[in-house]
Amino acid sequence: MSGVLFVCTGNQCRSPLAEAKFKAMMEEYGLTGWQIESAGTWIENGFPGDKRALAWAEKEGLNIRNHTTQRVNGKLLNQHDLIVVMEKGHQEALRSNYPNLNGKIMGLSELSGPFYDIPDPVSLPDEEFEEISKEVVNLVKKGFNEIVNRLMKTQNSQEKKTFPSL
């Protein structure tokens, strides 16, 4: 199964919000069949989402209530055709540790413009936390078509490999 993995540092704010927004948009457009997940580069498995992220998501109609953190690993990365990161540091770390994934890793901002870092809001005041949350959701909206197109291209190329024409 192909899909997209959203990656941030702690998998408690940015990547779960991106995952939830992308899933909501898939549902809105009647798209199914892709595995959509999120993970963190620097977190252990099983922690709940950030309380402010949970409250903000609920206010925005996004569901991350049952989210628990998961740490990036090779198996998880290989299960997805596209890995969408929040910062250049995430991209560099993944490319360094998993060189076979180089063509699969993109920045969230890069899907709709130039690549820039989306800062980790965990230690920021509430107002900045909310601004970053809005930015993540807006970037998912802007990059939605690009993500879907990339997943469809990957799916089509896999189907061609699986079912060669005679």
Summarize the structure.
This protein is globular.
Q: Provide the CATH superfamily.
A: Response regulator
Instruction: Work out the radius of gyration.
Output: 16 Å
Largest sheet: 4 strands, parallel
CATH architecture: 3-Layer(aba) Sandwich
What is the distance, rounded to the nearest whole angstrom, between the alpha carbons of the first and last residues? 25 Å
Helical stretch count? 5
Give the low-pLDDT segments: 160-166
For the record, what CATH class applies? Alpha Beta
The residue fraction in helices comes out at 40-55%
Structural class: alpha/beta
| SSE string | EHEHHEHEH
**Would you tell me which CATH topology applies?**
Rossmann fold
Integer average pLDDT: 92
Q: Please give the order of strands in the largest beta sheet.
A: 2-1-3-4
**Number of structural domains:** 1
Question: What is the overall shape?
Answer: globular
Please give the number of β-strands: 4
β-strand percent reads: 5-15%
